[in-house]
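Appendix B. Raw example, untouched.
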Amino acid sequence: MVSPMTSRLFVALEIPDDIIEQLVEFREEIYGKDDIARWEPVEKLHITLKFIGDINDSLIPEIEQKLKLIAENNDPLDLEFKKFGLFYRDNKPSILWAGLRQDDNLIGLVNQIEDSLSILGLKKEKRKFKPHLTLLRVRGRENYEKLEEFKQYIIDDLDFEAGKITLFKSELKRGGSVYTAIKSFELQAWRNNVFRKGCKIKNIR
């Protein structure tokens, strides 16, 4: 008997390229450049809305249909990156992230995805949604002092419009995980993103 094909999936909110470029500039301004920190590549920078996990590939068309209906009933989101932060493991930094201003429409979108996919038998996420973009997965040789400095900064005026959600497949390969877009869905009309020039970071220490 042939085992069913499975895939590891997640749903993500796409971030405009110019916003990603600005975050990378901030990152380099604060941390500097070295050959040790293995930053997340720009093509993997996104906001995860729902980690689905390993599922039977036969469910993918139904997931796509659910996401299509959700996208058709949501407008593009007006969002803003506000700060940097760290997640810790054993009292040591494990993830460096850039966080969004709290947004009720984004929370509503996430709740719709959770509710809709649960109808297909997928488990709801029990943890509170904390919208963030992962910049670095800490491996242990990075400059911890420099990483801690990120928390001294806030981000001013880095607002944008996000209008596309994507179903991604994640595959673990020798060089690390590889993300492949299965299908994208526009939130109503994908209008030109709004980028406020002159944004900056500010040391709040």
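End of appendix B.
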